[in-house]
């Protein structure tokens, strides 16, 4: 049976208690699945997201970093990821504020996560001198330097942040916030005044994804770049300025051109590589954010797929659009 896709106005008129408004991360499986996807992408196994040789090595390095994130979750004690006091969480929820804000004071235990991730990478660094050098530099950072890097990462600032250091600091912060987010009650968390920021931690989304299965079938969610929570936003709506005018899509044409269209096939047929990864562009604010479609690739992983689809960033950037927010595992110098 082909399910009819609802228009934005129709979705907004529905009873939203029937749509899972917030999907909290399954922290203990998230990073394992992400590492697997990164390796598949690096091996060019994913139709619709072509990866060149220059990107392959970086994706494999990030897969190792994500493996380290998964290992740290398994080995560190649960109290490392303790939630703030209940009264503080309730106060934030009552005022439609993020209960686990990325701004403000961080739990001191994030440093324990950071050290553990570096330790997990030591065996790999023994055979990779460049990685060994980066780990040595990270361990040499004093407390003020490390906390300053964390501040910049959470604020998505490029000024004063070493692009090779930032992904490792971001990885530790991701583990910290993802593990804590997974302990919340999704039904209690309230939407923010703006739907363009994560209702759990207030960070920007890394990308959006069209989900399939159950009550989420056919609905679009934004995935948080920090805590991996996903929140619902209607389709064909800019995820930066929330405009519904001037929204369009760009994708990378598969090698060999677009497949021939069979007039007898349904318009929304599955497994169309050209619809796995697209850039949703907005002519109102001239920004874009990528959107991945589980209807066309069941195993889409927004952060990993966003990282691998750098060719799409180049394409849209050349068309004059600016990226709405970054990927925590890929940083560039300010210039």
UniProtKB/TrEMBL annotation:
Subcellular location: Cytoplasm
Any Pfam family the entry gives: FdhE_central
SUPFAM superfamilies associated with the record: FdhE-like
Keywords from the named record: Cytoplasm
CDD domains: FdhE
Domain named FdhE N-terminal: residues: 19-192
Domain named FdhE central: residues: 197-235
Chain ranges of the FdhE C-terminal domain: 236-330
Main location: cytoplasm
UniProt-listed NCBIfam families: FdhE
Family that this chain belongs to: Belongs to the FdhE family.
UniProt function note: Necessary for formate dehydrogenase activity.
Protein name stated in the entry: Protein FdhE homolog
Source species: Duganella dendranthematis
Gene that specifies this protein: fdhE
